Amino acid sequence: MDSIPTIFGNINPNPAMTSRERILAAINHERPDRIPCDFHGMDACNKALFARLGAHDYPSLMDRLGYDMIDIRGIVDPDWVAPFPKVRELGGGEFQDWLGFRRKRMQTAFGEITEHSDFVWKNAQTIADLADGETFTFPKVEWFDFSTMPGRLDPFAGRAVMASGASVFQHPTLVRGLDNVLCDLYEAPELVGHVSKLYTDFYLAYFDRMLSACAGKIDILRCADDFGTQQALLIKPEFFRQFFREPLKQLVDLAHSHGVKFMFHSCGSIRPLIRDLMEIGVDILDPIQPMAVDMNLADLKAEFGAEICFHGSVCTQSTLPDGTPEDVRREVFSRLELFRGEGGFILAPAHIVQPDVPVENIIALYDAAREFNAR
């Protein structure tokens, strides 16, 4: 429906949507009352925002910044009921989590971060070498109790709620090592297929239970698999189609069977895969890394914008960490202008915001969105 011109400007045909309604309208290519926003920051970044804005919880942070959707991973998780700790300390700041990821805590000038430090299956030569052992037991859905999640989601009523954590490519690289997986594609394809299937099957069971337990309270399921580098794809499109397209489709189909939208995340230059992603039913493409080759938002909108919703696009490589608040405002306005009066876009940083981004620039992003949407 077109807006109605008056001497006072344009009357919006959909005033006062809830955040959830606004996000779903954008995903469905309907016109929202304003272009919706999202935010996701690392812990140190979030703590700085809480302190600066006087927010006491995530709903109040959402209100103060003015964003519409929340990734509940790490905020509202299923209860851990396995008879052993969720994280095993290895010494020297290194630890191994329940997914088999080995990471190390490190202090930076901006706060503590963790980085992957080793790979539990890096020396595997055959499928038999991947059997459960002392080093790593592959996760089981029975280790989790989902029954308390619905009640803990109540504070987010009226917001768009996203569950995340699924992966069919990246998580295998975090137990096997990226260099090994890239070689395996040529030399040991059975290992690639086996490890990917392990994670796919686990996430199908895990999120089926979560979405069933939280029926009507989760709106989006997100899968993250970085198939792109700054310049090009990390793997050949043929390998994506041979090993990873069908597992992704299984996750998409699971989400849709629960009435939930599906977001796919991949950093980098992934334009050659976008048509594949749309064909298997991906609803939202994230994060539209603007400095990567062939990922210009205007060009992507012209080619794919009628069939998929874009999420992200505000540069976390340059503008947010190194720009001024005015630089941020200018970039936000340029993104929003592309979708003025339309759906199909959710404004957000093009990556989880790291603690080197000044708080002033984060606030400037959402102030600019509010200013644009008020026009």
From TrEMBL:
Residues 176-371 form the Uroporphyrinogen decarboxylase (URO-D) domain. InterPro entries: Methanogen_methyltrans, UROD/MetE-like_sf, Uroporphyrinogen_deCOase. GO terms for molecular function: uroporphyrinogen decarboxylase activity. GO terms for biological process: porphyrin-containing compound biosynthetic process. Pfam families: URO-D. This is Uroporphyrinogen decarboxylase (URO-D) domain-containing protein. The lineage of its organism: Bacteria, Pseudomonadati, Verrucomicrobiota, Opitutia, Opitutales.
